[in-house]
């Protein structure tokens, strides 16, 4: 159903180039999917306690996974899930950008290429022939790339999957014209705050916590296992020092490479480190 | 506008037509439908899957067994537990490990959590709006507020089970080959008891609610395939059986099933070598395992007017509600009997060999096979998700449904075609490692 809005105000530009949509009465939210597992957009439906309240304040105008109704753009906030892996998607993301005032990429696929970016280190043709009987039917790009490689992104929300609380915070922040309050420090900080015994010492050496961005509230360490980097590299991560420390404890090169080749394998810092340990 | 009274008259006016849905909504992932009608005959049906391929089987090669459950979880954000369970089962099978009963029950508990969460999502947020004529659950909430709120609450109970046992609801982190990283405390699980008792009552209401919906008259002689366990309703394990004589161990799967690659889909079509298309999922499980449901669930099914031999795929929404009821009861039972196991995981010794795993994801059987080397590194992986197994049946349903309902208006027919696909709760993200609807009149 197409609903015409009477007044479209241009969003005011704030000091830190943050676009606010607070002056628009009921802002329109769109959710877009590219190559992904659907988990991050599901986070929105997983806000069981908040969902109906959220929809009182914003109009979910385009969200195919949840609704067959589509309100035409432009949209005030677009949440983009998934990475770009096909020529068609590389075109489509530009259409999405054109219809969106604020574009927020959500999850490891959209911010770093995701687990499917493991193809970026290999020849994709071998991958296709390993799975599909008729490779010629499959159209795909050589690399899986994050949204920001293709269009301007207003905010990147990290995580595999994203934290639903951070998602609500980010939507709230943009609705009120303020900076989202999401940390850029390491998982270690959350770990210390929760008085969790350091996993690097207690549960074997391989914890990516020191170089991984916080946001999960030190989930894995609280379950007696090392962090495996769901939220991607933190600000200024010293991956080399961490690798050297692991090596001194007897961690082998191939294991080091695999540690950095997870869901954020194609993020700059993790990519360089994993390549340093590739034979 | 001329409105033809019956199909023959209509056929004159539309020598050929196409029913087309470019981007199917309320399903997980990207797909579409194209149905071509020429005169009075459906000439072509295609369920296109354009969700980009993600090549999981290829990049699992060379990974360590301990990483596999974390990687396979990422195939699907709606049913990560299923992927973790099937892969763990396969790897343990390769290494010759069996876990003790308490760990097995804890796995069953977290799987119940996923069934509750996934079924609640599909029944109320994706499928019920079809029957009631709404675009989505949020619009539905305006007229059916208490129902939608109840749905969200049931869903939350399921998610909280996964949260407590698995660490988080999407891509849990506590599930590993051999068992768990950390065992939940009895007090943590006990905190769920009261809400599960409520969820059982709510699920009974859900069964009543779904049984009162209006169902199109449509039945087909399906071949159902599901797991069968000698003691319990199948979730984690069992033998593979069908209503047409299949009865095999899961390691025999590839001798009886094969995958085809068709041009209009990025997901492989899976078929039975001998008999072609088959049906997996709640309706299949229900028809083959009705006797294993709890007395309350069997009673609820009877009251809802369905039993063995329910062949109307639209009624799968009732079956999902019954399974949701079962999963709540089963979860409560496991929690009541829970004693913290002696150890969180069995000791793992990697071994050269091939392992097979198959479990009942909310959408149907999910098959995994891994070939491992002696250092525990994956040499080869094969994953067959439920949606790719149902694809062929979905296309056949579309063909039959359109053929027998050509008298309906294009608008109504398109809507019901979408519904025909949603009966299967397809998960396209899973199937490509898959939805969109198109009708064409040429």
Describe the structure.
The complex is a heterodimer of chains A (279) and B (442). Chain A is α/β, with parallel strands linked by helices. Chain A has two domains: 28-175, Rossmann fold (3-Layer(aba) Sandwich), CATH 3.40.50.700; 187-276, no CATH class. Chain A is 34% helix and 10% strand. Chain A has helices at 39-45, 51-57, 87-99, 107-112, 124-131, 164-175, 187-193, 199-202, 219-222, 239-248, 253-260, 268-276; strands at 28-33, 59-62, 75-81, 100-106, 155-157. In chain A, strand 3, helix 3 and strand 4 (100-106) form a beta-alpha-beta unit. In chain A, helix 11 packs antiparallel against helix 12 (268-276). With 442 residues, chain B is α+β, with helices and mostly antiparallel strands. Chain B has two domains: 7-52 and 389-441, no CATH class; 56-218 and 294-382, Cytochrome-c3 Hydrogenase, chain B, CATH 1.10.645. Chain B is 45% helix and 17% strand. In chain B, the strands form five sheets. In chain B, strands 3-2-1-14 form a four-stranded antiparallel β-sheet, covered by helices on one side. In chain B, strands 6-7-8 form a three-stranded antiparallel β-sheet, with helices on one face. Chain B has a three-stranded antiparallel β-sheet with strand order 11-12-13. The model of chain B is unreliable at 1-13 and 432-442 (pLDDT under 50). At the A-B interface, helix 1, helix 2 and helix 5 of A face helix 2, helix 5, helix 6 and helix 7 of B.
